[in-house]
Amino acid sequence: MKLPATDKESEISGEELLAVKDFKVWFPIKSGIIQRTTGYVKAVDGISFDVKKGETLGVVGESGSGKTTLARGILRLVKPSSGEAYFNGVNVVKANRRQMKEIRRQIQIIFQDPYASLDPRQTVSSILYEAMKIHGIVKSKSEASKKSIMLLELVGLSEEHLYRFPHEFSGGQRQRIAVARALAVNPAFLVLDEPTSFLDVSVQASVLNLLKNLQKELNLTYLFITHNLAVVHHMSDRVAVMYLGKIVELADRDSIYNNPKHPYTFQLMAAIPLPDPDAKKKEVLLEGDVPSPVNIPPGCRFHPRCKYATEKCKKVEPLLIRRDGHFVACYYDIDFSANKIVGEASNE
Fold it and tell me: CA angle 219-111-137, nearest 5°?
């Protein structure tokens, strides 16, 4: 399923850099002596979206919703079960070894934990040189050294950091080194997997601002994964809300935050704390936990936690349809301020 552009996308380049269609990542559950497959963990279960060149698409949801597995599946760090993911017109799912090497040069990932993503036995110089050598970016160590110094200065570090080991840096500095390593191979697309969740709050803003500045300077495209709703609003042009392996709502960031259409999105947005300590806000509790991806509820996946659910919601899974500029997987128009269903949803 191809999702048409929203109004916000007209401000972004019309070139589609990444197109994901009915993408699934299922992990088999095996048991018995002969290891027979008895079921599947449906971590990502039929997702479709696209990302325009120069855009940041934020992916948000609770832990266990499938955000990181989606990113790893697109990079083929885990094997996709079915569906398609086209990067620059090449189907990543069916790409051969040579094609995958070029795709992995162009798509780089920055991991969540800067303490685990850097080899503790390598200096910064070695970490950066290894990436450049594998992809043939430089022809000599002297050229690599010059480029490494430039990269460190680009991310807010200096030449004096080049010959230190990761344990000699703070968490924020390590994540800057991880950014430099990703940029060392001249990528076009960065997957940012909760890049600031391990950092102190005082450091998070500087790293996020660095990423935004680099995007403008280097014309990068981002897939930004996070559970921090304030961060995703700051960073993203559009936001996709994931729940139990599915996208339940997708729209531009201001529409998502100011006028959510799906009950799950509304409750996520209502949980954002207000920066004013004197401001009063009606408490909206999201009850229950995300169901197991092994035993997905029939019908709408959110219905066991949704106070607006009807018998129809419990039996038939809603499709992601366009409504008021959003893509929403819900049967009903809901007035959240009045706490009631106001009508059945219709496709635009």
Answer: 50
Residues 172 and 123: their CA atoms lie apart, in Å, by 17
**Rounded CA separation 18/107 (Å):** 10
Helices (H), 34-140: 67-74, 97-106, 124-134
Catalogue all structural domains in the chain, each as residue range(s) with its CATH number.
7-121+165-344 (3.40.50.300)
Name the residue among 117, 95, 118, 120 with its Cα closest to residue 106: 95
- Please check whether residue 334 is in contact with residue 341, taking contact to mean a CB–CB distance below 8 angstroms: yes
Packing angle, helices 124-134 and 171-183, rounded to 10: 20
**314/309 Cα distance (integer angstroms):** 7
Please list, in sequence order, all residues whose beta carbon lies within 8 angstroms of the beta carbon of residue 208, skipping any fewer than 6 positions away. 196, 231, 234, 235
**Cα distance between residue 69 and residue 71, in whole Å:** 5
| Number of helical (H) and strand (E) elements in the chain, helices listed first | 10, 14
Q: How many CB atoms lie within 10 A of CB 205?
A: 13
User: What is residue 183's three-state secondary structure?
Assistant: helix
C-alpha to C-alpha distance for 333 and 135, rounded to whole angstroms: 51
Model pLDDT for residues 133-191, shown as the tens digit of each residue:
999 999 888 999 999 999 999 999 999 999 999 999 999 999 999 999 999 999 999 99
Element (H, E) at 56: strand 56-60
- Mean pLDDT lowest among 31-35, 51-55, 317-321: 31-35
